[in-house]
Please model this.
Amino acid sequence: MRLYCLPVILLFFLGGSKASGQSATMLWYNRPATFFEESIVLGNGTMGASVFGGVATDSVYLNDATLWTGEPVNPAMNPTAYQYLPAVRQALQQQQYKQADSLNKFIQGSFSQAYAPLGTLYINHKHNSQPTQYRRQLNLANATASVSYQADGAAFTRTYFVSHPHNIMAIKITGNKKGAINCSIHFKSLLRYTVATATNRLQVNGYAAYKSQPNYRGDVKDAVLFDPLKGTRFANIIGIKNTEGKVTATDSTLEVSNATEATVYVSIATSFNGFDKNPVGQGRNALALAAANLDRAMGAPYTQLLASHVSDYQTFFNRVKLTLGDTTAPNVATNDRLIRYASGGQDKPLEILYFNFGRYLLISSSRTKGVPANLQGVWNQYLRPPWSSNYTTNINLEENYWPAEIANLPEMHEPLIDFIGHLATTGAVTAKTFYGVKQGWAACHNSDIWAMSNPVGDFGNGSPVWANWNMAGAWLSTHLWDHYLFTSNREYLQKTAYPLMKGAALFCLGWMVNDEKGNLVTSPSTSPENTFITPAGYNGQTTYGATADLAMIRECFLQTIRAASLLKVDKDFVEKMEDALQRMYPYQIGKKGNLQEWYFDWEDTDPKHRHQSHLYGLYPGRHINMLETPELAAACRKTLEIKGDETTGWSKGWRINLWARLHDGPRAYKMYRELLRYVPADKTTTNYSGGGGTYPNLLDAHPPFQIDGNFGGTAAVIEMLLQSTENEVVLLPALPNAWPNGSITGIRARGGYTVALYWKNGQLQKALLEPNNSGLVNLRYANKTKSIMVKKGLKTEVRF
Model:
């Protein structure tokens, strides 16, 4: 970025432009946030900040992706759990489902640990009059937030950003009247900490709990335990650079007096040093790291910090652009836009804004090696957050990464890929001790930064319907293969992806058993968080051969076979997987025309249940599709019709993608609109039926907040416009009628293609393909197909 451009650019960053409410890259509000669900979230992939933008008191919640409770897990925590398997299987063979549920509880371990809130930065401003002309905004185009208002005869502006290149947060406070800035700064945390100050610095040292009970266990004794000799350490150092005026320190605050400009720098670090390293004895020096980052940032000009932050961020964000034609939506604040949209108003830029926001969130929350985005990305205010803000691997962690490859953000996928390697390490012990499988690795319903892989439930206190699910390895392995299909990186496939894929497949081979007809099934088995009703009227949780299990295993085997074939390795192993695929219990279509979720054609306890895991083969899997398996695709459609459209936020995100795979653009769009249904910021009570939507700050309302719905919605927009397999690219497969004119550029297709699409009056005008490799590409649009030769790095225009 050239320096002579900076004055104009900085005016834009500081909120000098009057952005339209119709903007597809701007969130804005005419009052400060009262609740977190109204705050503006910023992040650099490790540090998270939630800006409230208050006038008298500005609160900023601070988080770090590596600050969790706990310490390295002992994967052999229940070394004889596998010995209960024969009894569970016998109970299932005898159709004794209540007994099977009871026995299955013996195959459980500890709960996961929780993502911790680092603390809150408070900036107290001293004004003598009420503010006017207040505006708070987040600019997705450059990942900066700003607050502007007038008070005491002066105009005040604050600009906030969290820099990845410098690993700090900067808050620049300016006033257009000399000496107008008078404020104090202090910090509080729910964790254990101490505060010390120097002339222009405030230093915090603290530590997280060594144990935390999940919030859903309620008010239990010793829910959160601290020990000064245990737990991840954290440091937070706040520094100030001022123009005019002065900075003084008390025991716990920094005071800025009569300044015209002040920049607050926030540097945080933790002692986390890896999933298998004790954060105390083997941890990093958090204080030294935070101090070094702060010194480096404060030693550079602010304009340089800002320019490097924007350049780094735009490297990723500017890769993709979506347009949807003209709009007549009025210029109103984002919360009012959502309310108007929920009542049926048209606002195509809002639909693009939500799509862009999902890309922004992934860039902002997933750039830490080996530490993927959790249930809340990197933003959390609670000591015991909802569902521990952990890695819930029966959908939520995976859904976080659905947009990564297709939205041209493969770098953001890498933390998950690294994390899968960690899970495989602990998961090899889990496979042996919980399931008696001596080869491969397994992972279960929950995990955390310590790569916990065991089934949860607190050694028998959890319900098997969620605690005992064990197919996370099979599901996560498909992310490894997808990364290869989009990047064409053969070295990655050989050294990283394939060994992990093979390990997941080996566990599945060792885990399946024969049913009475000789079919391979899983036993015991559950379908994530759903229950069935037996003919005798029992609401059961444990069964065998649940469709979701077998769907994930099929996808795992198909992809592992293909990877081994490309690498020309493991012929005998490939033959075993091919044989298993032939012997697995086949999909069943129920009496209602639906895809059966259970081995038998049982009724669901809740026919509209939020989970639809048995449709995995349709999406995110690909072995059920409209062309090759039309009867199964029709059964999936019937299942979705029975379930209906009212569901939680993340589930709605999944269902939009499922409807897109069924090439039903109108239904997918209908649910996309519902995903943006306005949910008030104070509505955070868990609601499993019809509670989903979007909070005023565009974060997904499960409710409460879960970020996976944002990512599922972003992925769904691309899924409506582009679908792909290793062998074919499908153009505009589910284009909604509501989007007759538009374009999208920079998205990615399997096989290694960057794609741009342009359409008018509901018809494709042209497609541009830029491939990673030279060769033949098969394209499909409507009922037409084309095969064309492309050259690496050269754009090829295609018209139908």
